[in-house]
Every structure is written in C-alpha cells, then in structure tokens.
Amino acid sequence: MALYCVVSTRRYQATGTVQVQKEGADAMGLSSLMSGAEGPSDALGANIDLQTQANILQSDTLALRTIEDLHLEGTRTSSRVGIPLVRLLSLVSPSGPADPPNSSLENAPQRRRRALKVFSKNLTVNPVGGTRLIRIDYRNPDPKLAAAVVNELAQSLVDYTFQTRYNATNQASQWLGSQLSQLRKTARTYKPRSPNSKPSRGSTA
Predict the structure, then answer these.
(1) pTM across the whole model
(2) How far apart are CA 80 and CA 201, in angstroms?
C-alpha cells in the first residue's frame, strides 16, 4: 500500500454524453415511412441500438484512432506507470516477437496491445437507463487531455455512424440502379404483338 501511494498520480475524470438517434429498419428509412404506431419491440430495438453504439465506443478501432490523434502513447498515464510495468512483465514472460524498431503503432503489436490496455483501463462507457444517451467517462492526470479524449470518442462515433449509413445507402442505391437498368433492357427487347397482325397458318380465329 505504501508503494502505491508513492507512485500514484492524481487523476481527473471527464464526462460526456452522446445521443443515439432512432434508426429505420432499412438503410434508406423506407420502413419508418410505411410503419404506423410504434410497436412493443421498439424498446428492445432501442436497447440493442444503445448497446451496439456503446460497443463501438469501446472498440479497438476508435481507441487506436484516439490514441494516435491525441498522441496518448507518450502521456503520463501510459508512460510512467502502466507501460513500464507491462514492459517489465513482458521481459519475464514474453507474449510474442518484439516490435520492429521505429515502427508505427499500427505495425507494432506489442505497443498496440499495451496502449489499448491502458486506454481501456481509464475508459468507462455506460448507456443511461430509460434514455437514448450513452455516458462516456475517461480518467487522466491532465484534465484537458481527459476532456479531449471524451470529445474525440464522441466525434469518432458520429463519423463512424455517418460513414456506415452512407455505405449502406450507397449499396442500396447501386442495387436499385442495377434493377432499373435491367428493367430498361427488358423493355427494349420486348416487342408487343400488333393488333392488325395476321394469325399464323393453322391457327383458328
């Protein structure tokens, strides 16, 4: 306990909330236009949406993007206490080959694993019950950096959601375009029988 008191660092917690908008069942929102009153499954769907967005906020993809954009790997939280301890343990029982020298975080599995471990240890994401809100908490010795992480995660979630919807809508548009193109080809090749045409030989009037 005495050792912990010596090396421990005061940490500040930043808190932010994001609101998850209600989505239609399909990418272009056609079902929401055709549906009537809200059914009993809406509550379950809202919970699924909230949990999905919360999982995205805690994903390695958003974490690595935040770590790189804010240069968190060299901050006090990751370098003074967490990272040296993990490095010492890795020397005792190595978990894999050493990272290439001067490699980026993306190409350094050991550094990436350590950075993600420290980041997730200081991050807390919880959906707020009875609402469409998700609370994001992050702890860091630097209060400004803690707030920056929360803001970065919230913006990354917005960007990720927008890109996902854009890709889904683009795919739906391409599918509709191919269907229309096929219909045009079918219409060009179809030749209706003229009302004045004579019946073929052997046929009855």
Answers:
(1) 0.65
(2) 97
